[in-house]
Amino acid sequence: MECDFGITELLSFRPVVFPGRSANTFAKTYDIMAGFLKMFTPKDRVFYTLFEELMGVLQEMADAFPKALKVADSDARMAALRTINDYEHRCDDVTHRIFIELGRNFITPFDREDIHSLVAALDDIADYTWGSAKQIINYGLGRVDDYMIQFAFIIQKSVASLHKAVRELRDMKDLVAITRSCVDINSYENEADDLLDASIQKLFATETNAIEVIKRKDIYEELEMVTDKCEDAANVIESIIIKYS
Cα 199 from chain centroid? Predict the structure, then answer.
């Protein structure tokens, strides 16, 4: 026998108090039942809203990074790069809120492991972007070269494609668009690999100061790592759409 009595109806149910029974006892029973049933109420909107909020901050960060690198004055550039840390803190805050929701809710839009993997991958992008900016600051790099700016623009494009893919996860109606974004991210990562090779070759061919070689090589590799993290996030998204499409 089928029952049409859903979670909404159960949550709106108010028990009848019979003679000799305490109204307080029934109230406590109802509160326990309501709290338990709310665990099974889908929270898709909460999760998707938080995913998109996280991507929004990441996009702001990716847009600000090349602008900071292109600032002509060295002191002003360092100040602009320090603001990248603010975006990283904001990403950490949203990531923490998503993990709290993950602990609170029994029903999630897709596997809990996939949510954790996706959010961790997105948070890594923020960490490594700030890590790249921090290396430039810590090394006191007086001149930002074209290779670094090119890396920053590749990161910006990668995050923009991720942003599109994450938005489409809300209803998964346009799987072609999600797949296209993931393919683009993979292409950008390959572009960054080629750029890393070219930058290191040029560095060793033209730079005679050993300390400068170490500094710039470290920064190039850290910048390339950001695109690897973007690809990691894209791989998680592809795994999700394969499972749920």
Answer: 28
